[in-house]
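Thread: "does anyone have the structure for this chain?"

Original post by V.I.:
We have the sequence but no experimental structure in hand. Need at least a predicted one for the grant figures.
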Amino acid sequence: MSNLKRDDRSPNIVSKLKDNFKNIIFYLLLGIVVITFIYDQILGIWLAGSFFIIYLVSYLITLSSKRKLLRIMQEYSIISDIDVAEKLKRSVEDIRKILYSLAKNQKKKRWLVVFLNRRYIFLNENGVERFKQFYKRGFSEKLILENLQQEMKIRSRAEVKAIENTLASNNRLSN
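Reply from O.Q.:
Generated one for you, tokens below.
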């Protein structure tokens, strides 16, 4: 059991170190630009422009990876972050960061991202609609689970409750 905890924490440490390294590089480059600008304004402007273009390209790559991720996930009625990471051959931490950013702005989206037990679950539009249909019929969590287990890969009542809570918190469930 201690190995499980150690393995579970190590990706967080690696992720934090990577983020800290990115911040250090950013501030180092900013310092180089400022110092260069003090001594040679034209070279400083060129460096600042170059770094801005590099940052813009990295932002666009991240944006396109979100779109690619959404396209792949929408093929499945329900899929977890671990399954997505396996399909895309990317780290689970990268997928979780993207899903976290998607989960922040999902009030007006047709799909749903749910966070449960330190993992993310994605439901596409059809999965959300099926859940809403069962909810509107007045089914209990147990009945919703039984029906959704037949149609989708939903595993537990906790997932049903998390989906219900996320929909309710985003004002997407009618009473």
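V.I.: this helps a lot. Helices lie at 2-39, 41-73, 81-88, 92-104, 125-136, 141-151, 157-169.
O.Q.: and The CA atoms of residues 6 and 79 lie 26 Å apart.
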